[in-house]
Every structure is written in structure tokens, then in C-alpha cells.
Amino acid sequence: MLAGAALVAMSLILPHPSGGHVVALIATAAGMALAGGVCWFLAARVPTLLVHLLLAGIALVTGVLIWEAGIAVGQYGTIFVWATLITAYFFPRRIAAFHLGWLLLVYAGALAVVESTGGYSPVTRWIFTGVSLTVVMLFIGSLVARRQRADIRARHFFDLSQDMLCTMDMDGRCIEVNGAWRSLGYSPAEMRSKRMLEFTHPDDHARATEEAMRVFGGGVSDALDTRVRAKDGSWHWLRTSSVFEPEEQLVYARSTDVTERKTNQEEREALIEEVQLLAHSDALTGLPNRRALDDQLPREMARALRGGKSLCLAIIDIDHFKAYNDTYGHLAGDRVLRECAGAWDSELRGEDTILRFGGEEFLIVLPDCEPTDAEEIVERLRAATPSGQTCSAGLAQWRPGESVDDLVARADQALYLAKEAGRDRLISAGAA
Fold first, then answer.
1. Euclidean distance between CA atoms 369 and 397, whole angstroms
2. Beta strand pairing status for 426-428 and 391-397?
3. Global pTM value
4. Which of the residues are catalytic?
5. Second CATH level (architecture) for the domain 281-428
6. All structural domains of the chain with their residue ranges
7. Domains 161-261 and 281-428 equal at CATH topology level
8. Alpha-helix runs per DSSP H in 199-246
9. pLDDT in single tens digits along all 432 residues of the chain
10. Which H or E run includes 181?
């Protein structure tokens, strides 16, 4: 009606045939604008019956205006066209046809009593008007029917989708959701008007809000993983893609439950971490093994080179361990290895590392340690050797540019010299 009032006003401004009652048309335009404004403001509360009566009343008032003007001119036809557009767009075809029939009946009565029909016979003008308005009604009705069929198909796919679909406003409130949300225990009615953040894990609020701002800025969210609370209180991981429609001021989001995938991924990562830990650990003593040395020692060499620090390496061997094993058995030997590993590890500094090198040999990495300090540490370890055992040790200081194998070889050579000298002693590389 607001648009119809605008068209009536435009017909008064633009050149038009004489004979029309200008004051009546102005009053009609003002009345239509007022009625349209009231209907707009009360759109959700106006009963359908009142709308029908209002449209029928407009047709009747227009017929009275034509009768009072005494001439059937094109200005009044604007009101007829707009009334037909409204009924064809908002109501089923049968109801629109009823309104059109009423309008043509009123128009026929007006044509029968006016003095002039603008150069046409009343019958001719009525037929032209009837055909024109019927075409308008059928055309608009066809467009509306096509749109309704498209909406039905879209709704059908919306409801059948196994993905959780949601339409939200700018405040993140759910306007429409599909039935897939029932997998979390919620019916569509329970989610409407609720903010999605109400269902989101508190730890994920910041990421979700940041992603929403990016989407509102014109971006597209491809894969936002957040935890959403199900109705039973459990948390589900949802992977959500969303896009913002500026014209409608709406966000369209699609979510997929990836809880099982996340769980499998976490279990796989934990298993990989466990395997890596086992691959770099000695099963008997729990200390890092020789593989860990290949990872750690190059890093310590690089750190020592950057900082200009000293790096030392010691190898400790339990004396006569083979004879102990042969006498008391392997279980007793394993116990001695575990006791020695624990005792020696407790004597080291926080930055030092002890590794089981193989058999009864243990390797000690001593970063940022001068040879004299390293000797003191190794002697402290030897003194802490449990179970009445003694041990021999070889010590070497890393030379910048020296490889891991060369450094280990020099420490091993010093250990060999300690054994040759009678065991139960420490010898540093380069000393006899």
C-alpha cells in the first residue's frame, strides 16, 4: 500500500489526462500511505481477515472516487493494479481471483454511472482492465508459485541434510535450524532464538567470536572446530563452515560432528608419542637410549658452539658385570643396572643427561661444563655406585667441529684405558 500510494502520487506529478479529481486522488494516496504504514508497523499482529477487508475496502473506495470524479481515467487504475499485485503475491490464486472479481465488479458499477470513460465505451474499458489485471494476477501468481516450489525444494534438502544447518542473525542467535541438531538432543524449537555461544565450550568462545568477526568482515569460515554441549551435558566437537549474507544480514552455517574423528586423532597422536618415547627410551632402566643420543648430542654441540661453552661427554662401565651376571643370574644383573641408573641420575645436575649406551655402559652428557668440573661430577657418580659395585669411566671434552662419533670414540678410548689400568677409576681423554 505504501508503494501504491507512491504510484498514485507519481501519477499526479507526471503529465496525465485531465478530468481526474486531484483532491480525491491526493486523499486516496494519503489514506493508502497511512493504512500501509499501520499495516507495516503491525504486520505480525494484523488478522488476515482485516487485510482482506482492507483490500476490498480500497477497491470500493476507488470505485466511489471514480463515480465522484465523473470520469474513468488512468490515475485510478494505479490503485487497481497495486491491489491486484498485493493479492496475487501474498494470497493463494483462488483468493486473489476472488479479490480481482470483487474489484472488477466495483469497477463495472463505477463505469455504469460515470459520465465519461475517456474515449472508450464502458464495456471496452472494463474488458481491457479485466484482461490487464488478470494477466498481472496470473503472472505474479506464477512467479510466486515458482518461488514457493523452489523454497519447498530448499526446505526439503534443508530438513533432510545430515549436516547440522543453522541460520543466525548478527548477534549469533539461531533463526532457523534443521532436524540434524536432534543428534545432540535438541529440537529446532529448543534452539531458536538462542545464541550459539550458549552451547559452546567456554574455552572456545574467544576463537568462535574471532572467527565470527572475520566472517562479518566478508570472509568465509571453512573449518572452525569448537566443542558444543549436547542436551545430556556431553561435549561434541563440531567442524563449522559459515558465510555471511550482507543483504539479508544473516549468517548461514553448516556443522558436522567430528567427535569420533577428533578422538581417533588424539588416540593416534598419543600412540605416536608413546611409540616415539619407547623408541628413544631403554625399557629396563627407563633412561633415554642410544637413539636419543643421536637427537640430543648434536643440539648440545650447536648450543655450545653458539655460546662458546664447554661440552663434556663421559662413558661409565660397571666393572666385572659379566661375571656378576654369570654368578647371580640375569635378573640380579638387571636389578643392579636399574639401581645404578637411579643412583647416578640423582647425582647429576638438572641440565645433565644420562643415557643407557648398551649392556652395562652408560653415557653422560655434561653441557656447559669444564673438564675439571666434569671430572668432579663423574667421581661423584662413581662414589654413588650401589650394591657394592665399582665402575670405570672415560671422559672427553668436545672439540668444535668434532662429530658425534669422534667424540664418543675418544670417550670410549679413555674408558678402555681406565679398564686397562685396573678399573675402578676415571681417565680423561688425552691423559694416561
1. 9
2. parallel
3. 0.44
4. 360
5. 2-Layer Sandwich (3.30)
6. 2-157, 161-261, 281-428
7. no
8. 205-216
9. 555 556 555 555 555 554 455 666 666 667 666 666 665 565 556 677 877 887 788 788 777 777 776 667 656 677 777 778 888 888 888 888 888 899 889 888 888 888 777 667 888 888 888 888 888 888 888 888 887 776 666 566 666 677 888 888 888 888 888 888 888 888 888 888 888 888 889 999 888 888 888 888 777 777 888 899 999 999 998 988 888 888 888 888 888 888 888 877 777 776 666 656 656 688 889 898 888 888 889 999 999 999 999 999 999 999 999 999 989 999 999 999 999 999 999 999 999 999 998 889 999 999 999 999 999 999 999 999 998 899 999 999 999 999 999 999 999 999 999 999 999 999 998 643
10. none
Of the options 3.30.450.20, 3.40.309.10, 3.40.50.300, 3.40.50.9100, the CATH number for the domain spanning 161-261: 3.30.450.20
Residue with cell 643412583: 343
Q: Do 78 and 4 contact (CB within 8 A), yes or no?
A: yes
> Cell triple for residue 234?
556431553
Q: Residue 201 is inside which H or E element, if any?
A: none
CA distances 201 to 187, 207, 210, 266, Å, are 20, 11, 15, 18
355 vs 339: CA distance, rounded Å: 14
Question: Hunting for cell 476472488 — which residue is that?
Answer: 98
